[in-house]
Amino acid sequence: KEKEYNEQQSQFMYMASHEFRTPLAIIDSSIQRLLRSKDSISADELQARCAKIQRAIGRMSALMESALAAARVDARADSMDFGDCDLNALVEEICERQQEISPSHVISFTPGELPSAICANASALDQVFTNLLSNAVKYSPDSPNIEVWSCVEGGEAVVRVRDYGRGIDAEDLPKMFRRYFRAKTAQGIAGTGIGLDIARVAVERHGGSISVESEPGRGSVFTVRLPVCGPAAVSESNAA
User: To which H or E segment does residue 32 belong?
Assistant: First the structure.
C-alpha cells in the first residue's frame, strides 16, 4: 500500500509540474510582450494581456488549493460540525452560482420532497456539489445541458448530477474516487485528480456514499446519498 501511495504521489508531482508549466508560460509570454511594446500598446491590448495573466494565476491558485485541501483531509485539520441543513436550498444556490460562472451551459435543478433539514455540515457539502458541478461543466464542453435533481430513497437524501459529456470508460469507473487518479477520457483537460477524493471523504464523514455511472461519449451521473439522521445516528445503528 505504501508503494502504491508513493507512486500516486509521484504521479501527482508529475501532473502538477505539467499543469504549472502552461500558466507560467502564458504569464511569461504576456509579460515579455508587454515589455517589448510598452510604449505603443493600446488600452484594449493591455487589458487583454492582463486578463490572460489573471486567468493563468487563477489556474495556478486552483491547483495549489486542491493540493492544500487534500493535505487538510489527510491531517484531519478540518473539524466538521453538524447542524440542520436545507439540502434543496443549498444545492439550488450552488447550481445558480455555477450557472453564473458557466454561461455556456444550462444547469437545471429539480428539487424532490426532501426533509426541510438534514443533519449535515453545509460547508463540506457545498464543496462536494461545487466540485461535481464544475466537473460536469468541464467534461462536457460541447454538451451544454446539465441536470441536477434530488429525492428520498430508502430513508436517504439523494442528489444526482448528470452531464452529457465525454463519459468514463468502464475500466476506470472503480478508480474514480482514488486520489490523483484521472480517467483516460480526461486527457487534455486540466485537473489534479484530487477533487473527487475530497468529495468522497466528505460524504463518508456524513455516513453517506458517492458513486458514478457512465458510458464513454454519453456522459456521467454522479449520485450522493446522505443519511437524513446524520452520521452519529448511522454509527449507532450500525453498532446495534
Answer: helix 2-36
Q: Are residues 41 and 120 in the same domain?
A: no
Of 105, 222, 224, 232, nearest to 167 (Cα)? 222
How many angstroms separate the CA atoms of 227 and 235, rounded? 11
What range does the domain containing 148 cover?
83-227
Model confidence over 113-156: pLDDT tens digits?
Answer: 999 999 998 988 998 998 899 889 988 888 999 999 999 998 89
Q: Are 199 and 109 in contact (CB under 8 A)?
A: no
Q: 124 and 5 in one domain?
A: no
Helices 2-36 and 43-75, packing angle to 10 deg: 160
CATH of the domain at 31: 1.10.287.130
Half-sphere exposure of 118 (CA within 13 A, CB side): 32
Residues 6+ apart with CB under 8 A from 184: 169, 172
Q: Model-level pTM?
A: 0.72
Name the grid cell of 213: 455511472
- The band of 67, judged by pLDDT with boundaries at 50, 70 and 90, is low
